[in-house]
């Protein structure tokens, strides 16, 4: 397995709010100029000789100060002889730190061109993905903004100069507004995506009209840091891009990069990344993340790309990476594109040059169907593609399908979105999904058991887009079944999809056999019975006061079925009178059965009047703490038995400002864990003021726990 490459002497750290701050207006400063409020963090800075601190995302936060999840993140710089993994580990263990990780290095996933310069237009890739047929439907829109995070771009290139947004471009490597390419990789990638087309010069781009937003995050060697990548993603999020192309990666996961990709995905952006050229099935990042389209490379014959030379990371012959995590593949051998010198090169190899085909098609889909979500666009790209497994023996299911721009832009689509695979369902099941496409004629939705047709649920000539395909009455059926959807097109082709579900139309069994109805009990009582189902989920045992309780307290919850055995032990010491025990059993399909018993508690023994703290916690603690009064706070403590209990809250001078009493057996005075809440209103009806307060837990007139509460509004 390849190990991560890290920048020596640097880690990324996210501190909790108000732990650290730079002088106003500064992006970086020496440690002596930085306000570090936590002594434990100061000690770590001293231990590892941290001499400079840089704040991340300053440019993005200036545009979007409401993106507070990006705040409080810094790069700490220390001597190169320190182990970055050891330093990151030490900071990660500190209670003032949310996360800490090394600043790892990503590499451009491209091989060096192995053919002489060729000024021409041999672009088999566009033909293989049926781009000309897609262009009959759309050539894109200039309003589609595709960010290219790479080595920059030659924005003076005659085939790119009219396609670039330089107003919002940025160079995070050199921290300036000039994303000029000094390596060539980004210029080649950009040409595949959106070279000016139908202009009588050079090459055609996959997307004729889209606008490129160049973001330089890789240096003149094709390498870049995770911090620059993360800042680049945040920047283009703020600029409202539609698609991000990332023709780079590394063989180690980065939590911050994963979060950056998730944030971009949640903003509705389509993320595309190269899968890598190491001739291995190892995950590469960011391509491996579920929010990103991972792109492998194939040659002009739709066979997995093999290139001359060796990958310096793996020392294997260079070839496209593969694996069941690959989303889709696209041409990546001998790709003709724009070069840094202002001309054209035909020998571009690598998954770096496969990914931009996908990014360009994502832009075409966005142009023709602006209302589609990013996930819908991803689904079109990955499902409306050509299966080339037969051409790649030994790699079946490990290259994804080969990109088909024509089907992705139009074609036919068959998806079942609900119920999801493996779902437990019952009764009338509404089946949702999509059966559509410009080539659509009709669809058939069936229920099958194994391969046997059980029922045709729906057959229709009406196309469906993310809506109900049909409703299936499953009454009386139990076990595993398959929903099968087939969508037909005018050309005679079809798309199909299947989802396996589990039917559970049998209600759970809930039975309390001991204690019996009306039985008198005391002390610790074992409750015996049955909580079971063919597709069991969990059961809950509760008790309430009287024959018709208005509320219940939990005795226990279990995820293990019980057949005529002990369900739980109930501590009744301290309780007295009539109570109801209730057993609720739930199955995976959401059905439930309830059984109740009314009993009488007559305790003769005195309860032990003490409470024990939960392991590893103070005697009592409050959450959240500090408390802002915008919501409720809970006081958390554990009692050994059921006691009449009080909570007293006093200010720092010892004045009582709030108190609450809890009867034995209810939350606040019950055996086990308690977490009664308070809304911040004091005895006099006003909201508690800022300050430090002391709270005390009293059970049976004996102080048994206390804690400190800070109020910050």
Structure summarized in a few sentences:
With 713 residues, the chain is mainly beta. Helix 7 (226-238) packs parallel to helix 8 (255-266). Residues 112-121 and 608-617 have low confidence and may be disordered.
Would you mind describing this structure in some detail?
The chain has 713 residues and is mainly beta. The chain has five domains: 6-107, no CATH class; 109-407, Rossmann fold, CATH 3.40.50; 412-503, Immunoglobulins (Immunoglobulin-like); 509-602, Immunoglobulin-like, CATH 2.60.40; 621-711, Sandwich (Immunoglobulin-like), CATH 2.60.40.4070. 14% of the residues lie in helices and 40% in strands. It is built from eleven helices and 46 strands. Strands 9-10-8-12-14-15-18-22-21 form a nine-stranded mixed sheet, sandwiched between helices. Strands 1, 3, 5, 6, 7, 11 and 13 form a seven-stranded antiparallel sheet that branches. Strand 9, helix 6 and strand 10 (211-216) form a beta-alpha-beta unit. Helix 7 (226-238) packs parallel to helix 8. It is flat and about 95 Å long. It starts with 5 loop residues before the first strand and ends with a strand. 46% of the residues are buried. Residues 112-121 and 608-617 have low confidence and may be disordered.
Summarize this structure as a short list of keywords or feature phrases.
713 residues; Immunoglobulin-like; mainly beta; flat
CATH architecture call of the largest domain: 3-Layer(aba) Sandwich
User: How many DSSP-defined strands?
Assistant: 46
Taking all residues together, what is the mean pLDDT? 89
Here the CATH topology of the largest domain equals: Rossmann fold
Helix content estimate: 10-25%
Would you identify the CATH H-level superfamily of the largest domain? Peptidase S8/S53 domain
End-to-end C-alpha gap: 50 Å
Number of domains: 5
Task: Tell me the β content.
Answer: 35-45%
Class computed from helices, strands and strand pairing: mainly beta
Give the strand line-up of the largest sheet. Answer: 9-10-8-12-14-15-18-22-21
Broad shape: flat
Number of helices: 11
In quaternary terms, these chains amount to single chain
Question: Any idea of the CATH class of the largest domain?
Answer: Alpha Beta
Largest sheet: 9 strands, mixed
Unreliable spans: 112-121, 608-617
Q: Evaluate the radius of gyration.
A: 32 Å
